[in-house]
Amino acid sequence: MKTPPLLLLSAFIFLVSFRGDKKAYQLYDAKGKETSYEKLLKDAQQADIILFGELHNNPLCHWLEQELTKDLYGIKKTDLLLSAEMFESDDQVAISEYLAGKLSDKTFKDEVKLWNNYTNDYKPLLDFAKNNSLQFIAANIPRRYANLVYSKGLGKLDSIDGEAKRWMCPLPMKYDSTLKCYRDIYEAAGGHGGQNLPKSQAVKDATMAYFILKNWSNGKTILHYNGSYHSNYHQGIEWYLRQEKKDLKILTIGSTEQESIDTLAKAALNMADYIICNPASMSKSY
């Protein structure tokens, strides 16, 4: 006896539903509604500045950074500029020389302060810029000066050499201790060290914003890569950008990890315009 077609279809639907498909990530909008990469790319095309907030050791974040970079370049060509937290501003000359083909890989690695995951995660972005004649901005304050703020206070930057001040945001620097991003750091440290710890974070945010704006002009799009905390909840870097230019079209991308990615956790709502939700079990790049 033949099995009725409707019964076969029902059985097939049951098997597919039972099997399921494990997602590597889910993209959400700020309100927690599922959205698509295509929508993200469409909105990114209209932005002046895109702040891509990654989880530093998450391979999916790095893959999406590369994909977005390639796809935006296909649309914007040399109107696209790249920028990163992962390179310190006093290494800009060496980076520009590398992009121009004046430094070998070995010399570059010897000369520049590189993160441990540079080869796998950031070199592909830098080499993409090199191969396509794109500008790449070393946007972060040299770590020694952020450490000086942490140990001695923000006022200590007034005493450093005038030449060194070229590699950071203009002083005196605005600072709002009531912003969630800095208040949370202060509270997590139990108030230890007073405001020096959150200020050491703020001077990074302010410096990145400064070099982003220094290199941006009308018609250009800057894609900036940073740790998600630096731009979550439209604070950090974005707050400093808007202190100087309120009408910028800024698009933020945030990243989070959850045991289940089927629904965005309440704590992650409004984290960014687009939120990459990763399984907590995802393999780490380091």
Descriptive labels:
single chain; 286 residues; alpha/beta; Rossmann fold; seven-stranded mixed sheet; globular
User: What average pLDDT do the residues reach?
Assistant: 93
Give the fraction of residues assigned to helices. Answer: 40-55%
Cα separation of the termini: 58 Å
Strand content: 15-25%
**Which CATH class applies here?**
Alpha Beta
Describe it.
This protein is of the alpha/beta class and 286 residues long. It has a single domain, classed as Rossmann fold, CATH 3.40.50. Helix content is 41%, strand content 16%. The protein is built from ten helices and seven strands. The chain has helices at residues 5-19, 37-45, 59-76, 92-99, 105-111, 118-131, 143-152, 180-188, 196-215, 237-244; strands at residues 26-29, 49-54, 80-88, 136-140, 221-227, 250-258, 274-279. A seven-stranded mixed beta sheet has the order 1-7-6-2-5-3-4, with helices on both faces. Helix 7 (143-152) runs antiparallel to helix 9 (196-215), helix 8 packs antiparallel against helix 9 and helix 9 packs across helix 10 (237-244). The longest helix is centred in the last third of the chain and has 20 residues, at 196-215. The chain is globular, with a radius of gyration of 22 Å. It starts with a helix and ends in a 7-residue tail after the last strand.
Q: What's the SSE blueprint?
A:
Elements: H1 5-19, E1 26-29, H2 37-45, E2 49-54, H3 59-76, E3 80-88, H4 92-99, H5 105-111, H6 118-131, E4 136-140, H7 143-152, H8 180-188, H9 196-215, E5 221-227, H10 237-244, E6 250-258, E7 274-279
